[in-house]
Amino acid sequence: MRRMTARPANAHQARLLRLLRDGGPNSRAELGDHVDLSRSKLAVEIDRLLETGLVVADGLAASRGGRRSHNVRLTPELRFLGVDIGATSVDVAVTNPELEILGHLNQPMDVREGPVAVFDQVLAMVGKLRDSGVAAEGFDGAGIGVPGPVRFPEGVPVAPPIMPGWDGFPVREALGQELGCPVMVDNDVNLMAMGEMQAGVARSVRDFFCVKIGTGIGCGVVAGGEVHRGTTGSAGDIGHIQVELEGRQCPCGNRGCLEAYFGGAALARDAEAAARDGLSAELATRLEAAGRLTAEDVATAAAAGDGTSLDLIRDGGARVGQVIAGLVSFFNPGLVVIGGGVTGLGHTLLASIRTQVYSRSLPLATGNLPIVLGELGPAAGVTGAARLISDHLFSPA
Length: 397
Ligand SMILES: [Zn+2]
Known about the structure:
Blueprint: H1 11-23, E1 26-27, H2 28-32, H3 39-52, E2 55-60, E3 70-74, E4 80-85, E5 89-95, E6 101-108, H4 115-131, E7 141-146, E8 150-151, E9 156-157, H5 171-179, E10 183-187, H6 188-199, E11 208-213, E12 217-223, E13 226-227, H7 258-261, H8 264-276, H9 281-290, H10 295-303, H11 307-331, E14 335-339, H12 346-360, H13 363-366, E15 371-373, H14 379-393
Parallel strand pairs: 4-7, 7-10, 11-14, 14-15
Antiparallel strand pairs: 1-3, 2-3, 4-5, 5-6, 8-9, 11-12, 12-13
């Protein structure tokens, strides 16, 4: 066993570790360009990191004129575990210290079975990954995402509407004991935002939204390069913003919420109703064959030109766009990323969201505002989870 026992002793060391995580092996000279330290103080901090074993020497760097400097890198044995629990599936991945994925598993799973059953499944998947040799010696830390509000940093889900049985469950503590390493827990939407910021479409963007449309709808808010969680951890819970006065009943207990009109669950329900009402032969055939419909069925039917499915996607996109337009006016982001399971609805959905945002927000806010699909797909959440725990470990102790 050779696991990470040391933590950075100060903010300079923490910054150096994160630079090596995000940029890979680098020379002392190049690192010096990114930190506010004299040459001699930088040398002291790097030497201390070498002593802790968090960082190792990695050959000679390319010459920048004068004496050649030594490359350093994060110790290559570091392993982070990323777990992204969705409403209907779970992703588990192992990363190296640069947060590149070394092994990744995805399985169907029902979050309503409760934390004990779900974590049994997660731990079995972790065991498989370890057996494959990518993390034979265990993990230095793990990040876990759950599809509901999380009291941060205690890592406890709070009254999650689609997760009965999870309210107050000590995820951080329970999994930390099982895995034998530090654990951080966040909601899945924040992790998707961190993943896209780490290795996806939001790289180098400081202020952006990441709207996840899965079974429900949430929004990761990144301000100044950091996830904004709010006072209690519920920032970005936009699925329960009211879009219709006295509208449809929502599982949260209120009426007219965005999630009651769109998201994977609402879309499947509306598609089944349309099929039963004889509005779409395509959907009716699929319903008869499978006994139920999913957002994927709607995507496939829409791709085949089914008008009802296209209308459902356009209407849903317009609802989401209406909410995002309000958020854009309030926050002035530099990018809006759309991700989650329903991105299979693709460009019809994106076009509908764009139309709403561009027509409802002021030109100064939207003049240079890309609204794009996420790049990482199912890797976004697990990459974000690895970033979450590495951010924690690469902070001054
Ligand atoms: Zn609601």
